[in-house]
Design a protein that fits this description.
Blueprint: H1 4-10, E1 48-52, H2 65-75, E2 83-85, H3 88-97, E3 99-105, E4 111-124, E5 134-146, H4 155-169, E6 174-179, E7 188-190, E8 192-196, H5 199-205, H6 221-226, E9 236-240, H7 248-258, E10 263-265, H8 269-278, E11 280-286, E12 289-302, E13 309-320, H9 324-340, E14 345-349, H10 356-361, E15 365-366, E16 371-376, E17 387-388
Parallel strand pairs: 5-6, 10-17
Antiparallel strand pairs: 1-3, 2-12, 3-4, 4-5, 4-10, 6-16, 7-16, 8-14, 8-15, 9-11, 11-12, 12-13
Amino acid sequence: MVTLKMLHKLSKYWKDMPIVRPDEPEGGIESLISVNPPAPFTTELNVKFVSDGSDGSDGSHNIDLQAVSNFLTKHNITTTGNTTLCPAEDLRKYQKFGGYNIVMLSSSDKIIGFIMSIVCPIKINPSEKLAHSSKIMCGCTSHLCVAKPLRNMGLAMGLMKELIASGYKDNVYCSYGTATMKISGNAVKITAWYRPIDLAKCKESGFAYKSYIKPTDRGTSRDELAYRVSNLNDRYNIIKLDPSQDVSEHLDYYLSIVNNKKVSFYPDYTHWVKWLSTFNTYVVSDGDNKLGVFSYTTIHANIAETGETVSMAFPLLFVSGTDSSGDNILMKAMLSVVKADGFPLIYIYQCGSLTSELLSQHNAMETSAKIYLNWYNHSVRVTPEDVYLPLF
């Protein structure tokens, strides 16, 4: 296993990057490691960068997102051998929310690399060494991909530095994102789970599930019962938030239940409306008593073992305003919604209110995927239970 110390010793690319080094403590009030961008990227290879920033509200875009989608389909292969896909319509959706797309081109203008980041307002609450809470604009970075024949040449660092430079121009100085290795000293391991919904489609796609069938059983009814998604009791309401309506009451409720979390997505009204326009978001209530909020997006993967392409629901926000019983109702509500939307399974990162106990209770399956939440230019230290941020 490559440790963080080995990584910094072996990699010249990270030496000037503002990340937490091993054994460095959490920082002061702002917790930014540096207010200066890292040194510009240099390489002997003939490459150039093209970027799209902000939300493109003026209608001008420099990047062909269909070409980017085709590139990811060919090259975005994970350590498990599966390929993470991103349709052009999803890339356009993220771009509309606001953020940055960076493409690396060869001398012949062929795409050889890509990275994207949506910009989220987040709140970081006090700890022993952080005297005051801070609200900052932070990049949520994902889909870092370099063409397979050109890996291990430092080109990923070039994409990251170009993204960082774009963010600095708009006063976005820090970011977070998931990766398959621990890069920053304050990285935290995130466990991935999936919960089957349609057993036949899961099996066809190559997703195993625990069988509850006993040798004396004559059929599969026991499995169907274990993974059945039942409708909520009529006393509960699942309200899909409509950004064309006044959603200030729901925003106030959401902010009230994340206000004391260590790190959370913390939007103003404008960003809340953008969020609701981009991601399906629901409030669950028991009469007049609100129980929690959840949002989800769709992720797509081609499974190497079967060659099947599968679309999965993927929670971005999941926060309960009550005790563990509220978590349970919120989970049931989310499963019923994604089932109604036709997903064969839901893929889940264990963080915030999505605890291992809750996921096990609902017969989710823990994966062996190695995923780390890494921070760039911020020294906050968290546990998975502290994280109420959208992760991609």
